[in-house]
Design goal:
- By secondary structure, this protein is an alpha/beta fold.
- The chain is built from eight helices and 17 strands.
- It folds into two domains: about 240 residues, FAD/NAD(P)-binding domain; about 100 residues, Polyamine Oxidase, Chain A, domain 2.
- The longest helix has 22 residues.
- It is globular, with a radius of gyration of 22 Å.
- Bound molecules: flavin-adenine dinucleotide.
Length: about 350
């Protein structure tokens, strides 16, 4: 594409990476900025023993059409094995899928394709402000703060934000967003999530998943190695996951105190368990994990060239208490297509040259 338009994609979670790959393949000059030091967002992994494992438990269903077709495009579909999962208190077993090398392989393959097409992914860049310059060629300025508190400004023709709706409202305060856009954005509410990953010396119980009552701070116990086997993790993988309102006192406690509280409740399920049964643990907090309200109007392009693709925009997301990658990927694919269409309509003349935006 001559005079290729540039796009700055905020967030290297699944949404940001899927959009970035697609747009880089279409000839856009892609820059992805991610506040954390690794890609993946909620699907980020850590190395445990000789394997990668997700910090938050992730598994596939046979009905995950969009995930499976993405894995196929990336040549990873044959790496998926399907296992019978035993759910506590439920008759029957559900088939669940998990990749040979964990979802790390999906995130790495997406990142690799982005860079293979000339895209750049910046880690440790937190976007604090998006502004617009009205010089001859109108461009967005994306201001990022780095870990040493220095600021870097990236310029681009188009911006795509993939984080929470509330965060977008905060970082666009210098832009002239219509109030009927900004106010509803601020009203979208989310539940937070805390997931405790435990590497245990031995199996905790025989089931894969067990829901827990309100007297537990975590609502679900997931024994990953009861599904996929021990692999080379060097222990049994157990997750304890809980959805939280941020007003809950535990949300602001230290990781060590949350671990102690979760462990105390684990002992209620099996009083024989002792601290030394746990080889290592890691707590992951996700502030904007599950949207609990949805925008009532379409929010995709609040200003020409500024796009939003966020979990709260997934249809029916608030009616479900489930977290799924499949609708996330579907929405990311739709958004990437919408950006391509909008760019070809608005920025490119028949000759393919970039024209000035019309406001
Ligand atoms: C507890 C839990 C369990 C789940 N289990 C499953 C499962 O078993 N199967 C399944 O299919 N799905 C599951 N999911 C859902 C899946 O994780 C999500 O659908 C998917 O990861 C969402 O990706 P995303 O890119 O939209 O959001 P995120 O992963 O949140 O990515 C957004 C990214 O943007 C970055 N960002 C935000 N603001 C800024 C900023 N200002 N500057 C720079 N970077 C920024 C964030 O750091 C993050 O990396 C689960 C989710 C949770 C919470």
């Amino acid at each position: 594409m001559p005079n290729r338009p540039s796009i700055c994609i905020i967030g290297a979670g699944l949404t940001g990476l899927v959009c970035a790959r697609s747009l880089a393949q279409q000839g856009f000059r892609v820059q992805v900025v991610e506040q954390h030091s690794t890609p993946g967002g909620m699907l980020a992994s850590v190395r445990i023993g000789h394997e990668y494992i997700e910090l938050i438990p992730h598994h596939l269903r046979k009905s995950d059409r969009n995930v499976l077709s993405l894995l196929k495009e990336l040549g990873l579909h044959e790496d998926i094995s399907w296992y019978d999962s035993f759910w506590y208190g439920r008759a029957g077993r559900k088939k669940l899928g998990y990749p040979e090398k964990g979802f790390h392989s999906l995130i790495s393959a997406l990142s690799q394709e982005i860079t293979d097409h000339g895209g750049i992914i910046y880690y440790g860049y937190t976007v604090m402000d998006i502004d617009l310059t009205l010089e001859s060629k109108r461009q967005y300025h994306v201001s990022c703060v780095l870990s040493d508190c220095t600021t870097i400004v990236l310029d681009s023709d188009i911006v795509l934000f993939t984080g929470s709706c509330r965060n977008l409202a905060h970082i666009t305060h210098n832009l002239d967003l219509p109030t009927d856009f900004r106010d509803p954005l601020m009203d979208i509410t989310y539940k937070a999530n805390m997931s405790l990953l435990l590497v245990m010396k031995s199996q905790f119980t025989g089931c894969f998943s067990r829901p827990l009552g309100e007297d537990f701070p975590f609502q679900r116990l997931i024994q990953h190695t009861n599904l996929v086997g021990e692999r080379r993790y060097g222990g049994h993988i157990l997750y304890l996951c809980g959805a939280f309102q941020t007003a809950h006192p535990m949300w602001t406690q230290s990781d060590a105190d949350v671990f102690k509280a979760f462990f105390k409740h684990l002992q209620k399920l099996n009083p024989a368990i002792v601290r030394s049964d746990i080889k290592t643990w890691r707590l992951t907090r996700t502030r904007y994990a599950l949207p609990t309200s949805a925008p009532e109007m379409p929010f995709t392009e609040p200003l020409p060239g500024l796009f939003l693709c966020s979990l709260a925009m997934i249809q029916d997301s608030t009616e479900s208490t489930e977290y799924r990658m499949d609708p996330t990927i579907a929405l990311a694919n739709d958004t990437a297509r919408m950006i391509e269409d909008s760019v070809s309509e608005r920025y490119l003349q028949d000759t393919g040259t970039v024209i000035e935006r019309i406001y």
